[in-house]
Amino acid sequence: MNIFRFAGDMTHLISILVLLLKIYATKSCSGISLKTQELYAIVFLARYLDLFTDFISVYNTAMKLVFIGSSLAIVWCMRFHRTVKRSYDRELDTFRHYFLVGASLLLGLLIHEKLSFQEILWTFSIYLEAVAILPQLVLLQRSGNVDNLTGQYVFFLGAYRGFYILNWIYRYFTEAHFGRWISVVSGLVQTALYADFFYYYFISWKNNAKLKLPS
């Protein structure tokens, strides 16, 4: 594992911790898209089925369990926690995310690196992760104002993909037979979706002002 991959994993973990902090400390999920969280839960469940068949390292296994467990815990809180669910912005979170699931599954069936059940699920999860942030970004644009913890959550989630791009560049120049081009292309698409958010995040940081997105 190189430093860029590790930094990507850590920023991804930080984003989840920030989101959990927001939910458990404030007992509120205002500004958070349940649909994005459900998509991430599907992503991790589909991608990490190899927990039952392959062992790579303790670190790898631990991270997989953390991502699966935290995503399911967040969805549960937003749906069923007596206090948290009251703050859910149901009227703003109306993105039809099932279209993203269907399109990603179809693409996974059509374009994959090798034909096997586990590989198709892995490919499906890569495609779905690339667009899973869309309901969250739409919700933030509709609400306009973004609270600090929600802004930090989305920032670290985007930074995670940025570090993974550096990881792929590093691996391209250091590995003799670098593959996984589906991950690279999907990662570039995912990072591009954050461009607008990062622009306004930088402007708010530069002006020491509250983060606001155009509706």
Summarize the structure.
The protein contains nine helices and no strands.
Q: How is this structure best described in words?
A:
It is a single chain. The protein has nine helices and no strands. The chain has 215 residues and is an all-alpha fold. It is globular and about 45 Å long. It starts with a helix and ends in a 9-residue tail after the last helix. The model has no long low-confidence stretch (mean pLDDT 91).
Oligomeric organization of the protein chains: single chain
Uncertain spans: none
Q: What's the count of strands? A: 0
Helix coverage percent of residues? over 70%
Number of helices: 9
Main sheet attributes: strand count, strand direction, barrel closure:
none
Distance between the termini: 41 Å
Following the backbone from N to C, one meets helices and strands in this order, namely HHHHHHHHH
The global form is: globular
Strand content: under 5%
The average pLDDT value, as a whole number, equals 91
Q: Which key features would you list for this structure?
A:
215 residues, single chain
